[in-house]
Amino acid sequence: MTTLAPTPVHGGRLRNAAGDLSTMVGRSFRLTRRDPDELIMALVLPTSILVLFVYVFGGAISIGVDYITYATPGVILLCAGYGASNTAIAICQDMTSGAMDRFRSLPIVSATAVGGHIVVSVLKNLVTTAVVLAVAVAIGFRPSADPLEWLGAIGMVVAYVTAITCVAALIGVTVRSPAAAGGFGFVMLFLPYVSSAFVPPETMPTWMRGFAEHQPITPVIETLRGLLVGLGTDGQPVTDLGSTAALALGWCALISSVFAGAAAWVFNRRRYS
User: Fold this and answer.
1) Which of 95, 141, 147, 156 lies at a C-alpha separation of 20 to 30 Å from 241?
2) For 192-207, how does the pLDDT look when each residue is reduced to its tens digit (9 = 90+)?
3) DSSP symbol at 54
4) Which of 258, 84, 94 is nearest to 185 (CA)?
5) What does the mean pLDDT of the chain come to?
6) What is the first-listed, main subcellular location in coarse terms (predicted)?
7) What is the pTM of this model?
């Protein structure tokens, strides 16, 4: 088998990277349109989870406020995890089907093929978030956020989705089959359960409580809940989200940079193997 030699990346190529990324974003959108089942599941699953938590579990859980008010931010992050798992599968399919080899033979920055998947994942998750919020409002969710708080909540969702999509990108370029990528990706679906997403951490066993209180998703949840409905982890009103929001954004930035860098390193290692 002929091994492709690395193509030098000069300043002109770097300036064209934005154009290459735009092309790959368009390609990822076209792939999404050709797979309507994934698109349907991305819309149906979030609303099903929301209805399940509100009408099946909500009546048995006492938080001090309507359970839909407490749980909706957590459902948003669950849906983002599902979207990230699909991204890991899509990237792995490109890695194993020969598509990446074809991209590397073209005069483009080949890493933008992975970047295209990441951008489209973020955009699809924003659409899913809007659907979840619309359904939540229809069944009783009443956010109290002003325009600035809505802007902050959207920014928090974007930061979180970008972070877990970078994790998914690393999974996609590392594993050897789409099935394995889906399996690893779905692990991210379970992390919000062991956080303050659906119950206060103080209700958990002591050995689990420490993890729930200090894992990265908890400050993201608390920031979203505080911005949208002005409530804290215990369901009581909060007045200062500064430190919590800073911690949430710090976690997202750290995860994004570490996993994006690791994905690029693994991608290049597999590139010439």
Assistant:
1) 141
2) 888 888 888 888 888 8
3) I
4) 84
5) 80
6) membrane
7) 0.83
In a domain, 1, yes or no: no
Separation in Å, CA 268 to CA 109, 190, 210, 221: 12, 30, 37, 34
Instruction: Give the separation between CA 240 and CA 176, rounded to whole angstroms.
Output: 46
Number of domains observed in the structure of the chain: 1
The DSSP 8-state label assigned to residue 139 in this structure reads T
The range of the structural domain enclosing residue 221 comes to: 16-271
**Structure-token pair, residue 208:** 């689990």
Q: Is residue 8 part of a domain?
A: no
Which stretch of DSSP H or E encloses residue 186?
helix 178-190
Half-sphere exposure for 215 (CA within 13 Å, toward CB) = 18
Q: What is the DSSP string of 57-111?
A: IGGG---SS-HHHHHHHHHHHHHHHHHHHHHHHHHHHHHHHSHHHHHHTSSS-TT
Residue 22 is assigned to a structural domain of this protein: yes
Question: Which structure tokens are listed for 47?
Answer: 């609303």
Residue 2 lies in a domain: no
Compute, in degrees rounded to 10, the torsion defined by CA atoms 145, 148, 153, 157.
Answer: 150
Euclidean distance between CA atoms 52 and 68, whole angstroms? 11
Q: No. of H helices and E strands in the chain?
A: 11, 0
Name residue 231's beta-bridge partners. Answer: 237
